[in-house]
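WARN retry 2 of 3 for item q-0093 after timeout on previous attempt; input resubmitted unchanged.
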Amino acid sequence: MSDFKGFVEDLLQSLSGGHLSAITSRFDETWGPVVEATLNLDAREALDVWLKAEDSINKKFHLVVKWMGKNDLTEDELIQYLVEVAEKAGPMKAKPGFDAAKLVDEIRGGGDDDERRRRDREEEGSRRS
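OK item q-0093 returned
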């Protein structure tokens, strides 16, 4: 694992122009080897570095990049960057019990399944009227 960390440390120092602030590595039972790096950059620059780094990592381990600067992205831009990172990083594994549909519903302000079914029935009834 230290080989991964050293490789990523050198790579991120180079790609970020020396703005690597911290780096750690660990083994996660679900994800496998994970390297976490913090860059002293704004979001856009840090995510550009992350995208470039993923090209060199070649899906050998998971990289997580955090930034210390300002968030200079709109929500849509941030989502687009994260989608691009996910595409380059390869298949993701979810922890047991993770429910993506439920998470999206909660983020969008939905309720539990019973509440959602009730709303769906009401909407269906109003369409028929």
